[in-house]
What does this fold into?
Amino acid sequence: MNDSWSRPKLTLVLYPFGAGAAAVNVFFASLITSWLGWPVLSPLVSIAIGMVLGLPLTYAFACHIQRLMQQ
It folds into this structure.
């Protein structure tokens, strides 16, 4: 396999997409939970949570992509 696409490199390249997707999902989840009386998160709080959650989620996705590249 070509070692130019290691897991850390894939994670770094895909992180903006993973963090953005996590932020959008956190924001929409807060909108859904507002039906239960919970507060709606601001977009900035959602982005901050998405940045934190984005790293492990993107790493897991990078592992999946690397396995696909090896096949």
User: Anything to note?
Assistant: The mean pLDDT is 94. Residues 43-70 form the longest helix (28 residues). Residues 7-70 form one domain. The helical segments are 7-33, 43-70.
